[in-house]
Design goal:
The chain is mainly α. Helices cover about 70% and strands about 0% of the residues.
């Protein structure tokens, strides 16, 4: 369990958005847009390719933590899943100020509960395309994922997914206030 926790946290704490934007010459992503290290903020650099790569790597670290820990059993996989999310949200290297965990959470769901992952991904994309708010898409997907997991997953997995959804909602508190106030930034997913 300790190995699964450490593995998950260390994988989760790799700040791919920060590393990639620096390597691409965009400077510190924390000084751009929302200051977040995730793919949505990387998109604000104007590089859709870099944002897509950040999304894929953040997703991959979530999946990798679970797949590796599954060798030690289902409970270890759940521990790794929770810790990879915590590592992404609260990385020690960045003073415990990380991302919001949406892509990494999807990565966790793929090996843990793929039907939930599929539904949440479709809901995220649909909501983002309809309303152009990444935060709203994340909130809809998180809540729907928790509800669906309660129906299709085992109890321990469903509880973990509900906990992850709650963390995502809490991490989006400022976005929720801006959505209610009508001041939330929109995203552009199509051609400029």
């Amino acid at each position: 369990m300790v190995a699964a926790a450490v593995l998950g946290y260390l994988l989760g704490s790799i700040p791919f958005g920060l590393v990639l934007t620096r390597l691409a010459g965009h400077g510190d992503i924390r000084q751009i847009g929302s200051g977040n290290i995730g793919a949505t903020n990387v998109l604000r650099t104007g590089s859709k390719g870099l944002a897509a790569l950040t999304l894929m790597l953040d997703l991959a670290k979530g999946a990798a933590a679970v797949v590796i820990a599954q060798r030690w059993g289902h409970t270890a996989a759940l521990v790794a899943a929770g810790c990879v999310i915590l590592g992404h949200m609260f990385p020690v290297w960045l003073g415990f100020r990380g991302g919001k965990g949406v892509a990494t959470s999807l990565g966790v769901l793929i090996p843990l509960a793929w039907p939930v992952a599929l539904v949440t991904a479709v809901l995220w994309v649909s909501t983002a395309l309809l309303f152009h708010y990444s935060s709203l898409a994340a909130l809809v997907a998180a809540v729907a994922g928790a509800v669906l997991a309660a129906i299709v997953a085992d109890k321990a997995t469903a509880l973990l997914i509900a906990g992850i959804a709650l963390l995502i909602i809490v991490r989006h508190h400022a976005n929720i206030r801006r959505l209610l106030a009508g001041t939330e930034s929109r995203i552009s997913l199509g051609k400029s």
